[in-house]
Design brief:
The chain is an all-alpha fold. The chain has two domains: 100 residues; 48 residues. The protein has five helices and no strands.
Length: 160
């Protein structure tokens, strides 16, 4: 008698396997557009995941080179801004991927406006962190600030 033992999986791995199993089981009952939406969400999830992996590799390489070859580099504000900007880029991509996964879970049939606004606010925060205010015209900074205020106002207006 042969017993097949599956390796232990983490909770997140079980959720992802369950997500794809759930999608496969629901596939026959979906309409044409719902199937199209699920296929697009799967493709986007894969592509954004690839971008996240490349961004993390780039971040590890840049941070590693800065720390090992130039020990004072993290104290330099431009290096700090660059590394922190890369970290925020990964976080923005993760949030974007999470939004796409909610479509696969069929919790929401469309991307939620609040989530898109939140991602835009994260992108604006990243922009303010990496911007060199000495090299940018004041009107550009004022324009970015107005954009953040507008996004924040819209986010507040669309809350429950």
């Amino acid at each position: 008698m042969v017993v097949h033992v599956e390796p232990e999986r983490t909770e997140q791995e079980r959720r992802h396997v369950g997500l794809f199993r759930e999608t496969a089981e629901a596939w026959p009952g979906l309409g044409l557009y719902a199937r199209f939406e699920q296929a697009v969400a799967l493709a986007l999830t894969f592509l954004v995941s690839c971008v996240i992996v490349v961004a993390i590799a780039n971040l590890v390489l840049a941070a590693g080179l800065s720390l090992f070859f130039n020990r004072l580099a993290p104290l330099d504000h431009t290096v700090f801004q660059d590394i922190f900007g890369m970290i925020l880029t990964v976080l923005i991509a993760l949030e974007f991927n999470h939004t796409i996964l909610s479509i696969l879970r069929r919790k929401e049939s469309i991307v939620q406006l609040r989530t898109v606004i939140l991602i835009a606010l994260l992108a604006m925060a990243r922009k303010f962190i990496i911007i060199d205010v000495t090299a940018v015209e004041p009107l550009t900074v004022i324009g970015l600030a107005c954009a953040v205020l507008a996004l924040g106002s819209v986010y507040w207006l669309v809350q429950d």
